[in-house]
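User: Can you recover a sequence for this backbone? Please restate the input before giving your answer.

Assistant: Of course. Working from this structure:
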């Protein structure tokens, strides 16, 4: 994905982030967890300690559906898991190493 990114921003005082990419939609498969994710041309959200909330522009395939991911958290104290929450009420957690660079 990083080769197609044309703009990245961060407003520190409120934690707002955005990423804009050239392509309309970019799909990526995280092989270690067999999970297909789709990134919209613009991704936005609010970053806090161990949390991204009000996330927009990221969808993860669940069966035949593509529910949007609305929040990502990492447990404190660390458990080695990343937690994903969707607006559709789906909550999943996966091992942190599944999302390491190059995956």
């Amino acid at each position: 994905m990083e080769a197609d990114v044309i703009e990245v921003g961060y407003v520190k005082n409120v934690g707002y982030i955005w990423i804009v990419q050239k392509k309309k939609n970019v799909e990526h498969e995280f092989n270690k967890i067999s999970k297909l994710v789709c990134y919209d041309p613009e991704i936005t959200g609010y970053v806090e300690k161990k949390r991204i909330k009000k996330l927009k522009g990221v969808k993860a395939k669940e069966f035949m559906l593509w529910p949007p991911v609305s929040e990502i958290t990492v447990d404190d104290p660390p458990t080695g898991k990343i937690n994903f929450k969707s607006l559709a009420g789906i909550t999943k957690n996966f091992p942190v190493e599944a999302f390491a660079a190059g995956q």
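That completes the design. The beta strands are 5-11, 16-21, 26-30, 35-48, 51-60, 69-74, 81-86, 91-95.
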